[in-house]
Design a protein that fits this description.
The complex is a heterodimer of chains A (270) and B (269). Chain A has 10 helices and 10 strands. Chain A is of the alpha/beta class and 270 residues long. Chain B has 9 helices and no strands. Classes of the chains: A alpha/beta (270), B mainly alpha (269).
Chain lengths: 270, 269
C-alpha cells in the first residue's frame, strides 16, 4: 500500500545532450509502496529520466533525491547505499554474457555480502525460482529466450532485496502472453515484498494492468500525473492522442505534391 | 577567414587530444587505486580469480605468437648484422648485437606490439560490447565500480605478464641468433650462450623490464578507455578496437623513444 512518504523526489530536473534539451524541469514524486508507470512516446525523455532516478547520470540542474539522499551531491558511500536499495531490470536485460545465469544473480551477493557460497547458491536459486527460472541457473544468458532473459534480469534486480524496483521497458520485444506474464510478475513481487516499483513503458495494456499512478512525458516535459482514472479522463491533446493511438503526420504531403509538380514541369535537375 | 578556420581546426584537435589524455590520466588514477583490491590475500578474492583468468588470456595464450615473432626478429637481426659485420671480420659481434638488441629493445617492444594487437583490441571490444549491452550501467546500478571490476584485473595481469613475455621474447630472439651462428659459422650453442652471458648486462635486462611495465600500462589503459568511451552500436565497438590498437601501438613507440632517451642520457642506456 502506498504511503504519503515520497521515496523518490525529482525536483526541477533539466538535462541536455549536445545542446538539445531532453528533460525540461521535471518535478515528480514516487511514494513508498506504489507502482508508478512513466509513459511517453519514443524520444519523450522517459529513459533519460529513469537514468537520473537510478543515478547513472547527473542533471544539468535540479535534484534527484532517493531516500532523502541527493544523488548528485552524495558521498560515494551514500551513493553506494542508495544503489543497493534500487534493483534495476534493464530493457535488454544487461545480463553478463560471460557468466551463467546463477552467477549473474549471485554477483551482487558475492560483491556486497559476506555470505558463504552455499547460502549464496540457495539465495540465488530462490530468486530464480521466484521468477520461474529455478531450473535454468546453469544456462548462459545467450541460451535464454527474450522473456526468460527479462525474468532473469528481474531475479538479478531482486538479489539484494531492494526496496525500489525499476523496470525499463519490461514488455518491449515480447509477445503479448509473455508480456502479460511479466506484468503478473511485477504485480506479484509488489504484493509479496511491498516494493516501490517504477516502470518505464509505452505499452498501454501493460501500464493499465500494473500502475497505481501514471506520469506522462512529452518532449522532455511532464504533462500529467495521476491515477489510471484521472489519466483516462485527462483531455490533454497529447494524452488523448497517445491513449487513442492517433499517429502523427510524418510525411509532409504538401511538400511532396509540390516536388512532383516541379518534377513533371521539368524544374528538377540532378 | 582561412586563418580563423585553421585556428579552429587546430584548437579543436588539440582540445580533443587534451581531453583524451585527461581521461586516460583519470582512469589510470582510478585503476591504480583499485589495484590493491585485485591482489591476493589483501584484496577481493573474485578480482584475484579474474586476474588469474586474464593472466592466462594475456600471457599464456600469447606465448606462441610472441615466441614466433621473436625467433623471426632474432634471425632478421642476426642476418642483417652479419651481412655488414662479416665485411670487417667482426661476425662475432652479432652475438652482442642480438643480446643487447633484444634485452634493451626488441624483446619488450615486440611483446608490446603483439599484446597491443592481440589483447588491447580484445579489451576495447569486450568493454565496448558491455557498454552497448548496458552491462556497464548494470554494474554501476549494482554499486560495483566498473573500473575495479573490469579493468583492474586486466591491469594487474598485464603488469605481471608483459615482463614475463618480454623475457620469453628475449630468450627466443637470442636462441634464434644462436641458431643463425650455428648455421653460418658452425659455432656450438654452448659457446654462443657463454658469449651471450658475457654480453648481457643486468642493467639492460632491468631497463627492458621497466619498459615492458610501462607498455603494459599503456596497452591496458588505452584499450579499456576506448571500450568505456564506446557510444552507439556494434559498429562503434569495431571502431574502438581498431582505435585501441592504433593508439596503443603509437603510444608504446612514443614511450619507447622517451625511455631510451632517458636511459641514454642518464648513462643507464
Amino acid at each position: 500500500m502506498a504511503t504519503a512518504e515520497p521515496v523518490i523526489v525529482v525536483r526541477d530536473v533539466m538535462v541536455s545532450y549536445d545542446g538539445r534539451r531532453v528533460l525540461n524541469g521535471i518535478n515528480l514524486e514516487v511514494f513508498r509502496g506504489e507502482t508508478l508507470v512513466l509513459l511517453g512516446g519514443s524520444g519523450s525523455g522517459k529513459s533519460t529520466l529513469l537514468r537520473q532516478i537510478i543515478g547513472l547520470e547527473r542533471p544539468e540542474s535540479g535534484q534527484v533525491l532517493v531516500n532523502r539522499v541527493d544523488l548528485a551531491n552524495s558521498t560515494a558511500r551514500e551513493l553506494k547505499t542508495v544503489r543497493r536499495s534500487i534493483g534495476v531490470a534493464f530493457q535488454n536485460a544487461a545480463l553478463f554474457n560471460s557468466l551463467s545465469l546463477e552467477d549473474n544473480i549471485a554477483l551482487p551477493l558475492r560483491e556486497h555480502t559476506r555470505l558463504d557460497e552455499s547460502t549464496i547458491r540457495l539465495m540465488t536459486w530462490m530468486k530464480l525460482a521466484v521468477v520461474g527460472l529455478g531450473d535454468a541457473g546453469r544456462l548462459g544468458p545467450q541460451a535464454l529466450s527474450g522473456g526468460m532473459r527479462k525474468r532473469a534480469a528481474v531475479a538479478r534486480a531482486l538479489a539484494l532485496d531492494p526496496e525500489i524496483l525499476v523496470f525499463d521497458e519490461p514488455s518491449a520485444g515480447l509477445d503479448p502472453i509473455v508480456a502479460a506474464e511479466l506484468d503478473d510478475l511485477i504485480l506479484g513481487l509488489k504484493r509479496a515484498f511491498n516494493m516501490t516499483v517504477v516502470v518505464v513503458t509505452h505499452e498501454l495494456a501493460s501500464a493499465f494492468r500494473i500502475a497505481d499512478r501514471m506520469a506522462m512525458l512529452y518532449n522532455g516535459s511532464l504533462i500529467a500525473t495521476g491515477s489510471q482514472e484521472e489519466m483516462k479522463a485527462n483531455k490533454h491533446p497529447r494524452i488523448r492522442q497517445f491513449f487513442d493511438r492517433i499517429p502523427d503526420a510524418i510525411a509532409d504531403t504538401a511538400l511532396i505534391d509540390k516536388y512532383f509538380e516541379r518534377y513533371l514541369a521539368g524544374d528538377v535537375h540532378e | 577567414m582561412i586563418f580563423g578556420r585553421v585556428l579552429e581546426i587546430v584548437g579543436g584537435s588539440t582540445l580533443r587530444r587534451l581531453e583524451y589524455v585527461g581521461g586516460l590520466t583519470m582512469q589510470l588514477r582510478q585503476a591504480a587505486g583499485s589495484l590493491t583490491r585485485t591482489l591476493p590475500l589483501v584484496g577481493n578474492r573474485n578480482r584475484w580469480h579474474s586476474a588469474i583468468h586474464q593472466m592466462a588470456a594475456i600471457g599464456i595464450g600469447a606465448i606462441p605468437m610472441v615466441a614466433v615473432m621473436a625467433v623471426c626478429a632474432g634471425f632478421i637481426l642476426a642476418m642483417q648484422g652479419a651481412s655488414e659485420l662479416r665485411r670487417f671480420g667482426a661476425i662475432q659481434f652479432v652475438i652482442d648485437l642480438v643480446t643487447i638488441g633484444f634485452t634493451r629493445e626488441l624483446g619488450p617492444l615486440l611483446t608490446a606490439i603483439a599484446i597491443s594487437g592481440r589483447s588491447g583490441s580484445a579489451f576495447s571490444a569486450e568493454i565496448g560490447s558491455m557498454v552497448v549491452s548496458e552491462e556497464i550501467d548494470a554494474l554501476r546500478t549494482m554499486a560495483i565500480d566498473p573500473v575495479e571490476f573490469v579493468l583492474a584485473p586486466k591491469f594487474l595481469a598485464a603488469l605481471i605478464m608483459l615482463p614475463c613475455l618480454s623475457v620469453v621474447a628475449n630468450a627466443c630472439g637470442i636462441l634464434a641468433g644462436g641458431a643463425f651462428m650455428r648455421i653460418s659459422t658452425g659455432m656450438a650453442l654452448g659457446v654462443y650462450l657463454r658469449d651471450v652471458a658475457h654480453s648481457m648486462v643486468l642493467r639492460d635486462v632491468i631497463t627492458g623490464l621497466v619498459k615492458s611495465v610501462a607498455f603494459a600500462t599503456i596497452i591496458v589503459q588505452v584499450g579499456c578507455l576506448e571500450g568505456f568511451r564506446v557510444r552507439g552500436g556494434p559498429d562503434a565497438v569495431g571502431r574502438a578496437a581498431t582505435s585501441a590498437v592504433v593508439k596503443s601501438t603509437f603510444l608504446v613507440i612514443l614511450a619507447d623513444v622517451g625511455f631510451t632517451a632517458i636511459f641514454y642520457l642518464t648513462g643507464a642506456r
